[in-house]
């Protein structure tokens, strides 16, 4: 790939442009707001002048609702050899393009799974996609050359290519992202009018469950509007489990021993299915998070305490896989949970104790 | 308080005994399994010999189902001036004691909000409760002397006392702990039979939402069996929101513009209520987590990298409030999110850049 055109210079488009430009590709930048394209160009993402002839790859990074229209326009004008979009949903845009009667051999739908807490070109960075999955949805009609252009883009962005069917992709992101997002919002919503004394009892559990409920509703309306079917199907499945669980809990209130036993069995089945699903969530390096052992250290709230813990762990040759800091409300002391490979835990405990740290357990 | 009796030497009982013993209180230890009491004594939590006369405070730390029986027995034998339990639910035990016809002036129900990933005396530590809320549920009948004995225990354990009505407590823990736990299990359960390709797309969002679904079902059955009513009520409220949201998503699939607009409004209302609830979740020092600014640093997977980051932050005089490490599946590089006070963020960014770190944004 020598030349590319990025249409839509928000966070995703500008980040991809930066990665390509950094690897020597000539990148042209376009946006319905020319000022956005100028900003992206000023950041070093390419030029906001139009290409003189067709480029190798056109990357459409427009908002979901406009993707098909922008793609159709670009394809009719023949601005590139290959075309892709980066929208977070893949079935809809493809069907819209088919309905417009376009030849889709030169098109491939893609979705980089990057975090999107920020938006706009100023938040862009050439390493936004580094190490993240980037889904490609070729069909049997997709030109191999176009698939290879997409793979080259993914490689330049140092992302991990994952090939999937478009509809399977939409069901997958509904499962691992859209459904959990709405459920997190529903748990958080219960706190809206809760008494302050109750809210004071929040611990790390509810903090984790509700973290993503802080996201921007505008962006999520766009995402969910493009994928309502699969998300509704999954929420209906959750609703069925919820109804069963409410029934089981009501049975636990019964004075009848058999009913209470049945209630207990029902609740336990739900908890065990939760266990079975949770171990499948990949942690670092694709392993399950439970594969790590946790070493808990008590700290004061002084700058430098964490530095000393990590320096001491480093000197002991131990790699910290994950870390979590827990502070109680209103207190100046806290706990640091260090997650390490099980074979490294004993050595880390010994090293930290030797250096004077207070460990739990 | 000079003397105490701990009945039930599991994690909670032994940890409280350790804290009291460390502060000079003479602690007697009892358990229905004498070996457990001997183990606790060997750890320095007190003596497993019975007291010769009444002690100042009896702390009943038996499993929820046995709390009322053990308390009633202790009160009838007159083993102490004051009695408390530490069960995670408070309405039930009080009603059971009342039904047994006991005078409850000498009793106070309490609940230390400590983490309980481990169990048994060997996991106990004198600082288990440090900085954590410890709920006390006195009534107008509770002797002031007994309330003060409980406050002294909480103080010795360096926990933060919170006074609540027993039933309000049970509704509060249903809200901030029991309901979120079951909902987390339900989200995780959807992954049990998911395709491997879909599971590969999991990111930090679902990882956080499902983390607590990894907990031990046996322990959670005990907790939920003691508080089924308030949990069922809250899950029913969530079920109503879930049904509304499924309907809104189905409306988004409509070809009718008005229906789609109504669907969008419905989904947005849910997301905004989630925002409003999420900001109430206390972070460190009782502030909302969103009050922090995040600085994102790219790291390689080498021991010592985190130590260097924290050392560099410490040298710049910046206190890291929270930290999160994110790794992509199968990759050797990752991102470290450092949460700091907004006024410290610019200085931290500058300091880290000067020392050669790659920052996002």
Automatic annotation (TrEMBL), chains A, B:
Q: Which organism is it from?
A: Streptomyces pyxinicus
Q: What is this protein called?
A: Prephenate dehydrogenase
Q: What family does this belong to?
A: Belongs to the prephenate/arogenate dehydrogenase family.
Pfam families per UniProt? PDH_C (PF20463), PDH_N (PF02153)
UniProt keyword annotations, A-Z: Amino-acid biosynthesis, Aromatic amino acid biosynthesis, NAD, Oxidoreductase, Tyrosine biosynthesis
Record pathway: Amino-acid biosynthesis; L-tyrosine biosynthesis; (4-hydroxyphenyl)pyruvate from prephenate (NAD(+) route): step 1/1
Q: Does the keyword Glycoprotein apply?
A: no
What sequence ranges are listed for the domain Prephenate/arogenate dehydrogenase?
Answer: 2-283
Superkingdom of origin: Bacteria
The ACT domain covers which part of the protein? 294-361
Q: What is its EC number?
A: 1.3.1.12
One annotated GO molecular function is: prephenate dehydrogenase (NAD+) activity
Residues annotated as coiled-coil are none
Q: Which reaction(s) are listed as its catalytic activity?
A: prephenate + NAD(+) = 3-(4-hydroxyphenyl)pyruvate + CO2 + NADH
């Amino acid at each position: 790939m020598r030349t590319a055109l990025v249409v839509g210079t928000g966070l995703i488009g500008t980040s991809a442009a930066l990665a390509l430009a950094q690897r020597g590709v000539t990148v042209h930048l376009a946006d319905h707001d020319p000022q956005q394209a100028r900003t992206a160009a000023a950041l070093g993402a390419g030029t906001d002048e139009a290409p003189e002839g067709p480029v190798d790859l056109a990357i459409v990074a427009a908002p979901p609702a406009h993707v098909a229209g922008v793609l159709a326009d670009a394809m009719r004008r023949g601005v590139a050899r290959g075309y892709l979009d980066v929208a977070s949903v893949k079935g809809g845009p493809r069907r819209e393009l088919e309905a417009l009667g376009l030849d889709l051999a030169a098109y491939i739908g893609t979705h980089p799974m990057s975090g999107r807490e920020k938006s706009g070109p100023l938040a862009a960075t050439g390493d936004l996609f580094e190490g993240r999955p980037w889904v490609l949805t070729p069909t049997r009609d997709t030109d191999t050359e176009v698939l290879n252009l997409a793979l080259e883009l993914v490689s330049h962005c140092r992302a991990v290519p994952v090939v999937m069917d478009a509809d399977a992709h939409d069901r997958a992101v509904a499962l691992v992202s859209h459904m959990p997002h709405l459920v997190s919002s529903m748990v958080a919503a219960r706190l809206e009018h809760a008494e302050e004394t109750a809210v004071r009892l929040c611990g790390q559990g509810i903090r984790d469950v509700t973290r993503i409920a802080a996201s921007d509703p505008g962006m999520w309306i766009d995402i969910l509007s493009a994928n309502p079917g699969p998300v509704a199907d999954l929420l209906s499945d959750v609703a069925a489990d919820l109804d069963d669980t409410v029934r089981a809990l009501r049975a636990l209130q019964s004075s009848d021993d058999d009913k209470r036993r049945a209630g207990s069995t029902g609740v336990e089945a739900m908890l065990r299915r939760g266990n079975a699903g949770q171990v499948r969530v990949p942690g670092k390096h694709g392993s399950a998070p439970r594969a790590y052992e946790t070493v808990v250290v008590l700290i004061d709230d002084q700058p430098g305490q964490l530095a000393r813990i990590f320096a001491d762990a480093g000197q002991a040759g131990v790699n910290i896989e994950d870390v979590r800091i827990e502070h109680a409300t209103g207190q100046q002391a806290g706990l640091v949970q260090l997650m390490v490979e099980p074979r490294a835990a004993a050595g880390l405990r010994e090293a930290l104790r030797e250096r004077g740290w207070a460990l739990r357990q």
